[in-house]
Design a protein that fits this description.
This protein is mostly helical. The chain has a single domain, classed as Ferritin. Helices cover 78% and strands 0% of the residues. It is built from six helices and no strands. Helix 2 packs across helix 5 and helix 4 packs antiparallel against helix 5. The two termini are 33 Å apart. The C terminus is likely disordered. It binds fe (ii) ion (2 copies). One fe (ii) ion (FE2) binds next to helix 3.
Length: 172
């Protein structure tokens, strides 16, 4: 098998993390939607789509290499938030945790001389740098706004409405 057994196991755990992240972002989007903050809601609905795409990347990589992806249930998610800062801080912590998991996957792939997985995982290493940066910026913006969330809405609309637009244009 191209992908080493320990890597398959860790990637299946990662599939669960990515689907959980997707569902968790829907829960955060719903919180903002209910608070009548449509730009923050739209941002997190988009993040949810991205996380689902991440999960599917792992699913297809395992299929392509003859390994077996396992489609998981997600653990209990957080549905109650005490405010915008709390919700975004929760999101940031989730991204930091996923970054650790990706780094650990890279470590296992390297230890087991699994070069196909190492190459595949590089995209996720870059992606996590971007996701942590975006969430850190959003949390800082909420703190700067000092409770004036319409300012945050404006920031999200102007700066985070299409976070990958630039990168996509470069990739063309
Ligand atoms: Fe992800
Ligand atoms: Fe993410």
């Amino acid at each position: 098998m191209i992908v080493k057994p320990r890597v398959v196991e860790a990637m299946n755990a990662q599939i669960q993390s990515e689907f959980s992240a997707s569902q968790q972002y829907i829960a955060i989007a719903v919180y903002f939607d209910a608070e009548s903050l449509p730009d923050l809601a739209a941002f997190f609905y988009r993040q949810a789509e991205e996380e689902r795409m991440h999960a599917m990347k792992f699913v297809h990589f395992l299929l392509d290499t003859g390994a077996k992806p396992l489609i998981p249930v997600t653990p209990e998610l957080k549905n109650e938030f005490g405010g915008a800062a709390e919700a975004v801080e929760f999101a940031l912590n989730q991204e930091l945790k996923v970054t650790d998991q990706i780094n650990n996957l890279v470590k296992i792939a390297r230890e087991d001389n699994d070069y196909a997985s190492l190459n595949f995982l590089q995209w996720f290493v870059d992606e996590q740098v971007e996701e942590v940066d975006t969430m850190t910026t959003l949390l800082a913006t909420i703190k700067h706004a000092g409770g004036m969330l319409l300012l945050v809405e404006d920031f999200v609309r102007r700066n985070l409405a299409n976070p990958h637009g630039e990168a996509d244009a470069e990739a063309e």
